[in-house]
Inverse folding.
């Protein structure tokens, strides 16, 4: 029978363990190690389970983590106007024990961990996060992210309300958290976009077929700085770092029919084997596309980008 442990001690141990795992694996962690968790006082403390709102048995009331699964059933999202994350209730009963647990986390200012699924079995770990809003009619909570330095304060003081500059209600704190949450939102989109695009292209460059994942990027067809540059698979290409740079700098373009076109002055240039084989040799070739039609580059997006290439 699990023995209850001190809530604050468990959370601090979880934050420390996560920092170690991120150092080892990067900020996208495999679900297997999160489900296994760590040991504290001889008891195992997992960080996730099959349920999105998770409280390990060693804790009494308040959940330790919330999780958004990739392609999951809940419409968790980002409120762009307020810079907050929106997390759906479990089910439709506001008084379900999991929802009540998050409500207690909000009332007590208890920090949690948020795991965002970027691909099956892969989760971006974000902490500390706080529940700052509860809407029973919409069946959702609002969540904000704070700077990891808050954990040091939490370790020393333990109660957020003791420090005015850390209160959610304080304008300065709200502004800081909105800024941090917006940055986190960008990371969520970037990591999710990368995993989905590389998966669609079977982890190889769409131009040269290079298969070393460490050397691959998820490139935007329409740049993400443009209004239509959404982080969706149909606006993405898996490219090695060389060809990503060449594509972004208009050394080459891709026509809507997936034919590759190298810029004329590059074709006329004489240089070593890298230029000859790495760029000039692509001219007239065809893009490798995903097997799924839904994941293939949208012709209308390619056309917009191709016209940018022609005008460069």
């Amino acid at each position: 029978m699990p023995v209850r442990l001190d809530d604050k001690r468990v959370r601090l141990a979880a934050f420390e363990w996560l920092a170690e795992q991120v150092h080892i694996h990067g900020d996208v962690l495999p679900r297997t190690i999160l489900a296994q968790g760590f040991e504290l006082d001889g008891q195992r403390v997992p960080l996730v389970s099959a349920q999105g709102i998770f409280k390990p048995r060693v804790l009494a009331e308040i959940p330790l983590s919330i999780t958004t699964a990739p392609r999951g059933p809940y419409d968790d999202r980002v409120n762009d106007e307020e810079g907050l994350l929106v997390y759906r209730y479990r089910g439709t009963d506001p008084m379900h024990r999991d929802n009540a647990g998050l409500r207690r986390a909000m009332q007590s200012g208890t920090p949690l961990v948020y795991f965002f699924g970027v691909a099956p079995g892969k989760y971006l770990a974000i902490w500390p996060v706080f529940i700052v809003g509860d809407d029973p009619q919409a069946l959702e909570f609002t969540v904000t992210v704070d700077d990891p330095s808050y954990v040091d304060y939490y370790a020393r003081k333990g109660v957020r309300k003791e420090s005015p500059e850390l209160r959610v209600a304080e304008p300065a704190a709200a502004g800081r958290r909105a800024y941090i949450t917006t940055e986190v939102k960008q990371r969520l989109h970037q990591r999710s976009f990368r995993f989905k695009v590389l998966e669609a292209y079977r982890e190889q460059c769409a131009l040269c077929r290079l298969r070393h994942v460490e050397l691959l990027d998820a490139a935007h067809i329409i740049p993400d700085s443009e209004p239509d540059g959404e982080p969706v698979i149909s606006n993405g290409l898996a490219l090695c770092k060389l060809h990503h740079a060449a594509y972004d700098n208009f050394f080459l373009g891709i026509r809507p029919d997936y034919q590759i076109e190298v810029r004329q002055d590059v074709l006329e240039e004489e240089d070593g084997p890298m230029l000859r084989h790495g760029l000039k040799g692509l001219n007239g070739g065809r893009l490798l596309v995903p097997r799924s039609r839904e994941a293939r580059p949208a012709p209308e997006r390619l056309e917009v980008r191709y016209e940018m290439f022609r005008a460069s």
